[in-house]
Amino acid sequence: MGSSNTSTTQSQASTTAPGTMTTPTVQGIIGQLNPLIANSGSTAAETGAINQLTANGQAGNPYAAAEGTNATNLLSGGGATSQNPALAANLTNLNSNIGNIASPGYSTVNSPEVARALQAANAGITNQVNGQFAASGRTGSGYNTQTLAQGIENADAPIILNQANTDTANRMAAANTLYGAGNTTSGAITGNNQTALGNELAGNGAATSALNAANWGPQSVIAAQELGKSIPASDLGMLSQIGIPLAGLNTTTNGTSNTNTTSDPSLLSQITDVGKLFASGAGGTSAAAGLGSAAAGAGSGILGLLGML
């Protein structure tokens, strides 16, 4: 007594299917998907291209050897300093040829050439002066000797001075030439060394390129093989995005549902229930049973009366 619980268990099966208007369309799409799925692997053209890529990769980069040689050459300077010894040798040779002319003690005044010039000048002056004194009958006189000495001095001085000036100019020219040649040689060698340094730095990049060229073959083989696997997988993935949702349109669902109902009986119902209980002998005596019957009858009568209202 007090409350009454009612529990109901239901089992049902349901099927979901596309509408009659869409069923032919779905079936037509699925009918076209089946051969596509069967042929979702690489095509003959794709297989041929993949095989060609694989063969090219296995053959290796045809420029890898040349790039490696170029990188090695650059890393060693690229031959930029190969002419440095020749430049230094040229400067040494020049110094050997004109170094003595640049020397402060250089002079050609006493050279055979200057001596012959002086002799020629002296001979001319001597003949001229002696001839004049001979014509006057004073050959060998003191004045003859004095005049001859003065004439030779006047003839020799310009020759000697001119040669000294020439020697000075030659010394200056030789010194300037050596100085300029030294600077030029130094600049050329420095430039070559800088070029070699630049080549060495460029060789670092060339070495990386050469390494990439060497790795190109294996990487191409891997890429080609991965392409051979990814094409079918991509096709199947695309087809599955269409087929799987369509396949899910026809499904059967089995399920169980439980319904629990709780109700509280009215006071009259409780009285009637008590009467029925005593009337059935649950009270233990005939008197109790009679009382129960009376209570049950009263309860039923009240319920009947309420129903008529």
Write the layout of secondary structure elements.
Elements: E1 4-16, H1 23-38, H2 44-59, H3 64-75, H4 84-98, H5 112-135, H6 142-247, E2 251-263, H7 267-279, H8 286-308
Helix pairs in contact: 1-6, 2-6, 3-6, 4-6, 5-6, 7-8
Q: What would a concise description of this structure say?
A:
Helix content is 73%, strand content 8%. It is mostly helical and 309 residues long.
Commentary on this structure:
By secondary structure, the chain is mainly alpha-helical. It folds into 2 domains: 54-247; 266-309. 73% of the residues lie in helices and 8% in strands. It has helices at residues 23-38, 44-59, 64-75, 84-98, 112-135, 142-247, 267-279, 286-308; strands at residues 4-16, 251-263. The chain has a two-stranded antiparallel ribbon with strand order 1-2. 5% of the residues are buried. Residues 281-292 and 301-309 have low confidence and may be disordered.
